[in-house]
Write a structure and sequence with these properties.
Blueprint (H helix, E strand, L loop, with lengths): L4 E6 L1 H9 L4 E4 L4 H6 L5 E6 L4 E2 L1 E5 L4 E2 L16 E10 L6 E2 H4 L22 E3 L2 H23 L1
Parallel strand pairs: 1-3
Antiparallel strand pairs: 1-9, 2-7, 3-5, 4-8, 5-7, 6-7
Length: about 160
């Protein structure tokens, strides 16, 4: 059973990089170094795309922390190379038009209840957050329903 449930806030461009890499590796900024070092194999990771307020995917952490300076992701700070990394295994990945709108689902999250309802987006400021298992499970279950629906439509 996973020990920690993480939520990564990521730009649309950087999520595209992770998706194009097959949801196999994730880099983090220096600001999140200590949190990334705490990640364990089997921990779960939920993606939240900033600016568009959407949940596109979930993954499982498949390695412990390592450093790599090959530039993949981009930051507003040119010196930031997202060198703090873990290998991941994509679990549920929605198609871009299927991404879940956080405005519909985030207010139901236990994690968000620390903020007044109108200001729930403040809960997503910063790169990496520990969230309750209940929230992670709710969001991943909703993503799985979307994927199942897509497969039914594709099967005809």
């Amino acid at each position: 059973m996973p020990r920690n449930y993480w939520m990564l806030t990521i730009t649309p461009q950087n999520f595209k990089v992770t998706r194009d890499l097959g949801l196999t590796v994730q880099g983090f900024t220096i600001v999140s170094r200590k949190k990334v070092e705490r990640m364990e194999i089997g921990d779960r990771l939920l993606y939240y795309i900033t600016s568009v307020q959407q949940f596109p995917a979930s993954a499982t952490v498949a390695s412990t922390f390592f450093q790599e300076d090959t530039p993949l992701w981009r930051s507003h700070r040119p010196e930031e190379l997202f060198t703090h990394r873990v290998r991941i295994k994509g679990e549920v990945a929605l198609e871009p038009l299927e991404y879940m709108d956080a405005r519909d689902i985030a207010p139901r999250m236990e994690y968000v209840k620390k903020w007044i309802p109108e200001e729930w987006p403040w809960a997503f400021i910063g790169e990496l957050h520990l969230i309750p298992r209940k929230d992670f499970s709710m969001l991943e279950d909703e993503m799985q329903k979307i994927v199942q629906k897509r497969r039914l439509v594709e099967a005809g």
